[in-house]
Specification:
Layout lengths: L1 E6 L5 E9 L5 E8 L1 H8 L10 E8 L12 E4 L4 E9 L5 E12 L12 E3 L4 E13 L7 E5 L15 E2 L5 E7 L7 E7 L10 E4 L13 E11 L2 E9 L2 E2 L5 E2 L5 E8 L10 E6 L1 E7 L5 E7 L4 E8 L12 E7 L5 E7 L5 E8 L5 E8 L2
Antiparallel strand pairs: 1-27, 2-3, 3-4, 4-5, 6-7, 7-9, 8-9, 9-10, 11-12, 12-13, 13-14, 15-16, 16-19, 17-18, 19-20, 21-22, 22-23, 23-24, 25-26, 26-27
């Protein structure tokens, strides 16, 4: 395995990468860059992923991910809002989508009117966060410039979050995995669809939920970040992050969002209805699933218990079972649970390139990639 630095900045917190081939053949990694407040908070043991000083960036490689140069970097989105979790989709016509979460993050001193719904209130940072929704941007020039498509909000569930890319179906429709709920109830995983290139979105279809958590995220399983894969003829696989509260090995309490497991949910009709969640045996979070050229499925995920790092697992039966006895360890040397959000891509020569964020000896969160072979 060969590890490669993609992007690191001294006074920034860089995280949540996603990788894709551009129509011109270059590799691109999009990620979230947050400023000094996030960088300092993480170094002091109070990491936050909610920062008004955050933006979505994209950086390019012309040699299959072997090298990355900062002069190729572009800004996708940078406004007064905070952002999280970008993911790209390259459509059949060459248009590139970049979907990410937009957050309204304000100091508590500025909260002069009660918000409709509080997503988080971090008293240690003095910040209150509300979800604006998933914003979709598009590029028609290989990622050099970006234009807004719109928010993928539907009134039935209101503003939602996501971590994973939109799926373009063979008929040109779009499916977007989203989630809502926490902290007032446990998260619900949904899929929404658009027939007009993201201008309008249909009513949501529930993928997974736990009614034990109807009044609190601490009382049920949180089904949130969901990776969707179309296996053909309307058969869909959803690999869903399933979080519960817990204590880390050093006694740190995590309400949700630290560790959990990945469950599989299946659909036979293009995501119109779904099976109950099935145990996969995969311990990690969140998971991203892709189909290799030989037909096998590869799930990539962060591993947030010691030894912290990045792992992968294969399925040879379309996601029915996973070869956990052959789990692949990409990294096991991160000093803290705060790492991961990994995605993999199969390169033209058959190698796998996995991107993720890590923490170095100075406490700096940065974007890394690893070339490896099965």
């Amino acid at each position: 395995m060969k590890h490669t630095l993609i992007y690191r900045e001294q006074d920034a917190y860089c995280s949540f990468p996603h990788v894709a081939y551009m129509p011109d053949g270059r590799l691109a990694v999009t990620f979230r860059r947050a400023g000094r407040m996030s960088a300092d908070a993480a170094k002091n043991g109070v990491a936050t992923h909610h920062d008004p000083d955050s933006s979505i960036r994209i950086i390019f490689s012309e040699d299959e991910g072997e090298s990355w140069h900062t002069d190729s970097m572009r800004t996708v989105y940078d406004t007064q809002y905070g952002v999280n979790d970008p993911a790209m989709t390259v459509l059949a016509d060459g248009t590139i989508l970049n979907r990410f979460v937009v957050l309204d993050i304000r100091p508590t001193s500025e909260m002069t009117e009660p918000p409709k719904k509080i997503f988080s209130h971090r008293v240690e940072h003095g910040l209150v966060t509300q979800v604006v929704g998933n914003l979709v941007m598009q590029s028609k020039d290989n990622g050099q410039s970006w234009q807004e498509v719109g928010l993928d909000t539907v009134p039935e569930i209101g503003p939602s979050c996501s971590r994973d890319p939109i799926v373009e179906m063979p008929d040109g429709s779009w499916l977007a995995p989203v989630y809502t709920g926490a902290p007032q109830r446990s998260d619900i995983s949904w899929v929404i669809r658009s027939f007009d290139k993201g201008r309008n979105w249909c009513a949501p279809v529930r993928i997974a939920s736990d009614d034990n958590g109807i009044h609190s995220e601490l009382q049920g399983v949180n089904y949130n970040e969901t990776s969707l894969l179309h296996l053909g003829n309307g058969e869909m696989l959803a690999m869903v992050r399933a979080d519960t509260s817990f204590h880390t090995t050093n006694g740190e309490f995590m309400p949700v969002g630290g560790v959990g497991k990945i469950v599989a949910v299946h659909s036979k009709n293009g995501g119109m209805c779904w099976t109950p969640p099935q145990e996969t045996g995969i311990w990690g979070q969140p998971g991203s699933v892709m189909q290799l050229r030989n037909g096998d499925l590869l799930c990539t995920y962060g591993y947030r218990k010691a030894p912290f790092g990045i792992r992968c697992c294969l399925s040879k039966d379309r996601g029915q079972t996973w070869l956990m006895d052959r789990e692949i360890i990409i990294r096991d040397d991160n000093p803290t649970w705060d790492c991961g959000y990994a995605f993999s891509i199969e390169l033209k020569d058959g190698r796998i390139f996995t991107v993720y964020y890590m923490v170095d000896e100075d406490g700096i969160r940065h974007i890394m990639g690893t070339h490896w072979t099965l």
